[in-house]
Design a protein that fits this description.
By secondary structure, the chain is an alpha/beta fold. Helices cover 39% and strands 17% of the residues. The chain is globular, with a radius of gyration of 23 Å.
């Protein structure tokens, strides 16, 4: 037997063994959550420090990074042993990235759309009444062929266990991509691929029918998880309404007993959403038609299926809540405060000024990383020298 033949047989045996042994198991794994939120900070560290070497887990190699598309979405592929990781970048400062977020009219969860002047079929759910966020559908559809080619590349290396993740908009794209890929097993991708999804701080992506199907297929099998900070506003977006009674007996009892804080603002928004549901749905759908024209100028003709008369977004299950993120106390004399940010300080009784927590502090990916460590890896949390990034303050 020649040396080349021996190496070939060794590689072949390794691939065969890997196809029968899955490293990715059902259930929430704290080590997976820690590693994935670290990867979700890749772009933050590259933007701030020029490198993500400090944050990427050991023995985790970047093997591919896509080119940002028209919506400024991109994804990265990592490999750690026999496990692949697909990470979707969150929102950026690019206007189209935010257009994608507000592109919130619902379309059917399966159908056809035209993109780059080409008609493409998509399936995120089999239920006919399932609806999904059109902006996130657009983002996934623009990337999905590239994602599938990278999965084929992982498969060629004997990797069939794949974790999918993202923070914020990236978390929404992770959920949508997970649903899409599961519906392509035995078609566009090999059936033996195993996918497991962790979404951090994600906005909602679909209606009740979509979520019910997703939960039944993936959440109940412990292969999909949502990790949020309850003080983070993004997971409650897009603006939606809830079915059932506006004021339930449980709500009233919780307020009376003090178990739940009475929230006038939340109740007011809910009342407005119910009262003007039809008008708001129409407004969202018409505004999205204007967005269609803006994006079509950059990406060729984009034609969505007819918008649904539905704006009732629902969160997927398997929720893991973190502690709200602590904002450090920053007190200064007035002379020490930059005049450009003086409005961000609150005057104290002693004449000094206290820095107020900035908007979206509770949403920052690094704060999610710190909170995940604090809950799931206390030893590493205690060793962490940097509990917050100065740039987030």
């Amino acid at each position: 037997m020649t040396l080349r033949t021996k190496h070939f047989l060794t590689a072949l045996i390794s691939i065969i063994i890997s196809s029968f042994y899955s490293q990715v198991k059902p259930g929430f794994e704290s080590n997976e959550a820690v590693d994935l939120i670290r990867i979700c900070n890749s772009q933050t560290f590259k933007d701030l420090y020029g490198s993500d070497d400090q944050i990427i887990p050991d023995k985790t190699d970047l093997i591919y990074a896509s080119t940002p598309n028209v919506m400024d979405n991109m994804f990265q592929v990592y490999k750690n042993g026999k496990t692949g990781i697909i990470h979707f970048r969150g929102s950026t400062s690019h206007p189209n990235s935010w257009i994608e977020n507000v592109y919130s009219a619902m379309i059917p969860a399966k159908g056809k759309m035209t993109i780059y002047n080409e008609e493409r079929e998509y399936v995120f759910a089999e239920e006919d009444s399932a609806g999904v966020h059109s902006g996130f559908v657009l983002g996934v559809t623009m990337m999905i062929e590239d994602v599938i080619s990278q999965i084929d590349r992982l498969n060629s290396k004997g990797v069939y266990d794949i974790l999918i993740t993202g923070h914020s908009q990236g978390g929404a794209l992770a959920i949508m991509t997970h649903a899409y890929l599961e519906n392509q097993k035995g078609k566009k991708i090999e059936d033996r691929n195993t996918f497991k999804m962790y979404a951090f701080a994600n906005p909602m992506v679909g209606n009740t029918e979509f979520v019910n199907e997703y939960n039944k297929r993936f959440v109940e099998n412990d292969m999909a998880f949502r990790i949020i900070n309850p003080k983070d506003i993004v997971p409650s977006m897009p603006i939606t309404y809830h079915e059932g009674s506006l004021l339930s007996a449980n709500d009233l009892m919780s307020w009376v007993t003090g178990k739940k804080e009475f929230n006038y603002k939340e109740l007011g928004i809910e009342f407005i959403m119910r009262s003007f549901k039809g008008g708001i749905t129409s407004y969202i759908n018409k505004s999205n038609q204007l967005i269609d024209k803006v994006i079509s100028k950059q990406a060729g003709e984009i034609i969505f299926p007819e918008y649904l008369n539905d704006i009732q977004y629902v969160s997927i299950g398997n929720l893991h809540e973190l502690e709200p993120f602590e904002y450090p106390e920053i007190v200064k004399d007035s002379v020490d405060i930059n005049p450009d940010v003086f409005g961000n300080y609150e005057k104290l009784e002693n004449g000094k000024y206290k820095r107020q927590e900035p908007s979206f502090y509770q949403h920052k990916p690094y704060n999610y990383y710190v909170a995940v460590l604090k809950r799931y890896s206390e030893k590493n949390y205690n060793r962490l020298r940097r509990k917050f990034l100065d740039e987030n303050l």
